[in-house]
Amino acid sequence: MRIKSESQAILSELTPSAWQRHHILDLDDFTPEEIELVFQISDTMKEVLGRDIKRVPTLRGKTIVNFFYEPSTRTRASFELAAKRLSADVVSIASPTSSVAKGESLVDTICTLEALGADAMVIRHPQAGAPYLAAQYSQMSIINAGDGCHAHPTQALLDLYTIRQHLGGVKRVKVVIVGDIRHSRVARSNIWGLTLMGAQVVLSAPPTLLPLAWDTSCLPQVTIEPNLAYALEGAEVVMALRLQEERQQDRLLPSLDEYSRLYQLNEERLAKANSSIIVMHPGPMNEGVEITPEVSHGAHSVIGNQVTNGVAIRMALFYLLLSGR
Fold first, then answer.
1. Is residue 111 domain-shared with residue 205, that is, in the same domain?
2. Segment 176-219, tens digit of pLDDT
3. 48 and 63 housed in the same domain
């Protein structure tokens, strides 16, 4: 019982009664203090994950549903492992094998799962705003695991946490996000989180892959530099985004070869950047398109750390949302 008592004591000291969030929908209304609290609890969760017995009884008796309307490997497995490490009961559902395939609405699905006794639902949905709709009709805690092109808050939190781990903090760090920013929920949530925590954010992409209208009332102000070589000058972090083939079909790009020639993260480009730069990617990667295998698996890459940190971050969020209920 030593594991239980040590972990519970540390967590009880960290968690203030002022934490009032019932859902995690995006980072646009988070405070720096809330993000720091998530990081502190994640530190404790990483310590748990480093033990021989990677499990604590914190959420024993709680039920968490993973409901994914889109394919996923990393995010779905990460949420499932996080819940199990906290001893919660986990139910994973994919929409093709659920009543959604028979025409059941999202609201009806929410009501059904709630009636079955679920305490929280992790949802990935192709339509922007779906988790917000779920939150309106649910007493469960809703965690957004990606909604359309809109948001992916837990990915952004694990990205910030990884930067903090490798660079000691986020404030005043120059972060370059390169790729299909226009259609990236990861980019949007990262922009909110990075600027909130004081990072200098530079976006680098072809004009057709930038938002149609950059409205600073909707997103924090950032710097746009279409020339990747200039963008990388002095950068401490570069994050490549997955480029989907349909962007060429939508006539947003002349060819994938042209994109790779101008925006691919390769060893030659990194050699001209900061010698200690770290390379990130939310996955899945198209190696040979937005990033080369040599870079994705090279000395600058922290992509594996991102995946590992995702479990600790999601454990922390489950703890904050459910431990006091």
1. no
2. 999 999 899 999 999 999 999 999 999 999 988 988 665 545 55
3. yes
